[in-house]
Amino acid sequence: MYDPAYGATDADLITFMGEEVREESAALGRRWFLVAELAGRRFPEMVGRQMYCADSISSVAAEISPVLNISHSRAVWQVETAITLRDRHPQVFKRLCRGLIDYRMVSMIVARTDNVADDVMVELDEAMAGRVEKWMKLSKNKLRDRIDLFIAEFDPAAVRVPPDADKHRYIDIDPGDTAGTAFVSGRLHAEDGAALDQRLDALADTVCSNDPRTKSQRRADACGPLARGEATLACQCGLDDCPARANRAAANAAVIHVLAEQGTIAGTSDKPGYLPGFGVLPAQSVRNLLPAAQTKPVTVPTADTAAQTGYRPNATLTEFLRWRDLTCRWPGCDKPVQRCDIDHTVPWPYGPTHPSNTKHYCRIHHITKTFNTGAGGFTDEQLPDGTIVLTAPTGHTYRSQAHGASMFPALRQPTGTVETTPLPPESPDRIAMMPRRRQTREQDRRERIATERRKRTEIITEQQRQHQAWLAATYEPPPF
């Protein structure tokens, strides 16, 4: 760390900043080089697996996500980007590894040149590599325009076509930047957006004039009643004779689940609760939910009560596993348990259906562990407190504590050891039983590129037609 007390001038500080920025970029380049090298070594071993759900890209992503501590989807993107830089942008890649350009530049180039034909990329890569250092100070939009200008010169049909906004409708509700809040974003049909806007206004106006909240705050609070199917927003005036109270009615209510300790509910503790998908919920926010809530204790199995027969966990064990794990247990993965499978660490019936032998894996990690196991694959071990020890094909090990158990100690008490029987030898045809894709990743990519290139060609043809029409309309023959 640079400290002015050791003689660094203001100019030195600026110089040091620039050096650190270049070192960060170079480190990113070196990391992507390592990812591409690992993929290059793994892919020959996985020939013929491109139609499987856990294809070569997914398998490498599952291997790097624990060490990078990132989700599976981000790991897939890292693998695909590293391979693209190595194979299609070697000259640009060299400049990243030297720290001459940064992540922003590289990600923009990779995205904008995705449609460029392979036989054009060598020349385009050389041409852009000679300019990228000069583009570093350009804004995002100006950088996009410069890259597109080069693409139009080398392969006009490859210029990216703006997406059809109507096809990209969505609503995202994510954790907010402060505890107990959520962030909403989305794109709707205009008529649906107008209806939602009016409905929030209508709900916000069902309180009396003494409510202390602003209109914006009431609109935000109205999302709760709207989601629960309620006809009015609860007034916060605090008056016993509030004129809005008589109008309050409720329809079918939506249900949310919150995990909290008994002391938080009783008011003897201010330890926060947990709202799945949104993180910690302040203790007072938990208590604010109590008037309309039903409380239910989570039954924590003990060594004497945990064992059960059969493959599928019963309702009590399923509920305990859901709250203990909260997310996929693969290191770096945070998919919620609602989108996960319950996996037997030691496969059933060689290992029992027991809290010390079951946990949640999302579908892709469940498939990866199930079909890419044994020698040269992944193995996992589960401890009585739910901790998972995952061993990668390289021999690296990663410990993963259950997310719920890490926040609520009662959920990580040991549930006893399990008795297992030796597994039979692995079938050499085991991989053939893996679920398959409809198309390979490369087929999906080629199909998308062909569609977008066709749209760009149609745009170019129409522009040329309009230009010719304009020339015909403005042309005046010379006088004789």
Automatic annotation (TrEMBL):
Q: Where is the DUF222 domain?
A: 20-325
One Pfam assignment:
DUF222
Record field: compositional bias (Basic and acidic residues):
440-459
List the InterPro entries hit by this protein, alphabetically.
DUF222, HNH_nuc
Which intervals of the chain are annotated as region Disordered? 435-462
**Protein name (record):** DUF222 domain-containing protein
